Fold each of these.
Amino acid sequence: MEHESLNNWIWDGLYYHPHLFGGLMLTAALLGLSTGYFGGIGVPSLPHLWSDVGIFQKKKRGKKRVRVYMDGCFDLMHYGHANALRQAKALGDELVVGVVSDEEIVANKGPPVLTMEERLALVSGLKWVDEVIPNAPYAITEQFMKSLFNEHKIDYIIHGDDPCLLPDGTDAYALAKKAGRYKQIKRTEGVSSTDIVGRILLLLKDAKRNDSLLNGEHQESISEDARVSQFLPTSRRIVQFSNAKGPDPNARIVYIDGAFDLFHAGHVEILKRARQLGDFLLVGLHTDYIVSEHRGKHHPIMHLHERSLSVLACRYVDEVIIGAPWEVSKDMVCKIFS
């Protein structure tokens, strides 16, 4: 009866005070005492106790999601911006993007071409972006860095390998580097917002030159090389931007085509609406020749593969046709959707 009474007492203790009795059993195990020491009490062996009662099981915790932050002006959004954010996302699980305010851009670089609303729409429309912080500062100040770490739960601050200097010559990311919370990505060569503005200015200058020639005035000719893109397309880059999957067997496929030159907020909106009409959005990109034929010889400003990457980076796009025909024929439809 003593054994039975003690046995009941122990099991009552396990039920009502599991942590206390768990500690006693762990102590016994550490001292090398067998559960047989309790002679006939009927206490189960430690492994059995762990699996059934769960006293010593570690609480399973989900892996902490790494949140990374990257900021920028993102003026005249192009595939270089998209590739930077793609690389940033690869360094974590969630990407938070800060869009620098108009005032900060003016103070540090000069007036932006696009408004804050347009730039926000473009950044939010990228497939790798999870959250957006509007009106971010140009430099990572101590106050803003604390806000990123404490309020937005940011683990690392990301920037490209190109230097980002303030007007006084100091590093805009010096504090993040000092805190040991900075990571770096490679800059995408061959394109920049400055380069795109240059192309636009050359287009306007060339158009003015042609008008002058029609009026019998002499103007210095513009080298065709000045308009040649420095972008070198590779299959690897296209794969990096692609969703790498086709439509499901019963998916409703939506097709839309266009030039999508100088990808902008209006493009994001129309692609969003097109995607809402079905399950899979296929976008056709017209060749440079077709665009030039219909819009004038100075177009497009961005070349076919540049435009393709900009469209592929949009979160609403599933696949693109690089060099789609102008007319959507029955034969084309059969080839696409077969």
Amino acid sequence: MMQLKTITPSPPPQPPPGLRLFPAVAAAERTLKFHQFLVLLLTFAAYASFHASRKPPSIVKAVLTSPVNQTLASADGSARNGTGWAPFDGPHGPHRLGELDLAFLLAYAIGMYFAGHFGDTVDLRILLTVGMVGSGVFVILFGLGYFLDLHSFGAFVLIQVFCGVFQSIGWPCVVSVVGNWFDKAKRGLIMGVWNSHTSVGNIIGSVIASSVLGLGWGWSFLLPGFLIMLVAIFIFLFLVVHPQNIGIEMSGRDVEMSIEGVALVASEKVESRDGDGDFIETEDEGSVAIGFLDAWRLPNVASFAFCLFFSKLVAYTFLYWLPFYIRETAVAGVHLSHKTAGILSTIFDVGGVFGGISAGYISDMIEARGVTSVLFLLLSIPTLISYRLYGSISMFTNITLMFASGLLVNGPYSLITTAVAADLGTQSTIRGSSRALATVTAIIDGTGSVGAALGPLLAGYIETRGWNSVFLMLIISISIAGCLLIHVVKNEIKGKLNEGRWLWLSIIAW
């Protein structure tokens, strides 16, 4: 006699509260493209606000380290005496700031490894909101040090550590949500455009922090801190983590593209009949997240992870030290003001926007992520040398070379953290574990973040020996990053030649 096993159905996924409060947003006539655009917009704003809140430390560096009685010629020809802010003033000020950057970025890197795996088990909308609110709170706390006349180095370090932990939540969450809504087609271009949130956030943070710097450096932290908390409200109210949350079925969709993994689909119990006609309860194999060590063993994960280590080392050295470098380096014989230097540094991020889009488009066109990354890395070496040697000749030369540097440095960084991570986390060899991408993304960006932590720290120490030494460090790092992808490039080229494509590369391959 056939027996039925009782299966308790899981409660249906609920839409976010904003869609329940404003049902017109989730109305049936709203198309899939509308909701995809809304997800892109919200995740773009979320991570742009993360980066905007990271920018103030680089903007205020020159103010905090101003040596006592040092007189510099400003852009208007007047003289200015710097006083600095203990414990960051004096000859060891850059060292302390480098250590402060290390505290933040190391906490960020370590937190990234846990955040990616933790993101597979919780509601990503809630987790992302918590990360944004927590980041805003500690950014504001850092700025309050100005108003409270705080001079404890340990207190500043502790604030940055907690800020780094909350910031590490952002990236695995936004990548996972976007992956739930988009298939593999044109992934490089879509993610290249979407990943410009990094540079856009840097630009917004630089402009906001620089514009209020004259009121006191604390204001440069308060406004970005409140900004990310404001954006967090919209994330909590309107972000739809998965199409099924609002009753959209992604029929015909490439099953590879489940990132968070398909958290709602992959974790569901599947009912089937056994040989006696009984209902049995089985666990979809995709619901088991891939192990951390197993993810490291996936093809090319280690290569791209360590490549990003050195690429992000370079990118974050610019992120945290470029305004300071511009302030200390005379352009056409004139030292720029703190505000002007901060705003001018956004040119590097403008170049980064075009770099991410260009790298994504080229990699889609030639279908080779490794070749694209190495091409950008190789071209960035002479560009950085030129920026160091000729960037001080005139403002036009400085802007042009800074833009080119941002384009070439951020291109591979953007490509690896988005499209490459998505490709590696959804490759056919792990199709039985559809929840791999959050873990793979965390491994790649977490490893890169360790490099991001070391870069600003090393720059803080090396800068005292001269900026030529800093640029030498950057060039060596880029060279190592390119070398780490040599075998990936060889395999890509051989694969294209075997397919009868890229015939123009046959001589090089031979």
Amino acid sequence: MSAARDSAAAQTFRALVESADRKFVRVRDAPLHGRLPYHYFHSVFKAYTRLWKFQQENRAKLVEAGMQRWEIGEIASRIGQLYYAQYARTSEARFLLEAYVFYEAILNRGYFQGSSKGLGKDLSLRYKELRFFARFLVVSLLLNRMEMVKVLVERFRTLVDDSKATFRETNFKEWKQVVQEILRFLKSDTTVVHTRPLRYCLKYDSHQASAPYVARFHAKRVLKLHDVVLTSYHRNEVRFTELTLDTFRMLQCLEWEPSGSFFQVHPIESSNNGVLHDQTEASGLIDINLAMDMTDPTLPPNPKKAILYRPNITQLISVLGTICEELPSDSIFLLYISAPGKVGRHCNSQLDISGVPRNSENVKVAHQNCHPFNESNKRDSSDGVEDYVCLGPRGGGGGLNNLYPSDLIPFTRRPLFLIMDSDNSHAFKAGITRCREGRESRSSSFSSETSIPAPMCC
């Protein structure tokens, strides 16, 4: 874009792009879990808001100087990425909606399609378009916009096939695999007949007015679900990118289903001279705060969710420790782990197809000394059950991939709701309970009034 450098507007545009990109990289590489200084996101959003408004106000000059349409798409895509990252950090639905608004505008206006001569065979531009489709698919899945998902899948598959034919010297095997992942994901998800939304819906679930009646079951205080950690590890598990089917369904269950009118985007907007422009035409006028009008103010905030894709044990414990330290006193955090255990033949014969004991009275769990640092509880018990779930390949790391009940004991000092989706979940529940009872019986410094509540397991 050499001609653009001759224009004052183009030079300002380039300076704004470079400044925004530097801030974008800093936020992109920041961890999604734990506290992050407020000025990080405030600074990068401010930079991209200024950049976006500048290209809107100076569109004619920039196009005349040589600015390409894909450059507008790149800015919009990065703004969408920022909003999605903020959603991943806060679980606020408005950020996810903002990402959807920008991604939908990119799709409708074909910013990455390369309408100019020669851009259709630009490999770097093609990669930008492929990554855009993958990101848009994730956002659409999380918003349960299945009609849009179907459109995106078909166009994504066509784009991958065209890429293989156009760029014969380039191997698109990984992108072909991504297409297979989303097709398998959708096929597996649709096998479950949804008679109601997975997300918590005021139309189907208990009304907010029932909260006082639920509160009486709490002896001293009502705990609010504040943080959630979702993770899974299975061989050949159904997933799309880093979103597995197990974590996706749990994520949906922990989101509020909007009860108001949603996605009613105004079809037209007014420009400065009073001329009406259709939102779908290539005007580049995307309302950066449009999603604020699409949110449902009647809903309470969603709990903050951390999705960990195949973490090692150290990473999982590190995230749990950060959450426990920052958890408010009136809050509870939920830990969901979907992973295989190692169930011996004696115990395995007493499980039905769902992994639930047929006769819980006949299922024995060896009583062991479950001190958090006692290795004896990690060995095979006499009934053939090993008290762990495996978050990694079998036999890899000499047991370093195994998560034991004692690993979670330190986190039960804070209110914890534990869901073990495993064929060895019953052993996990028994192990944590025994460890808690053993620790409390040895401690004389806590009275019955100040003892810490045991975690809820299922």
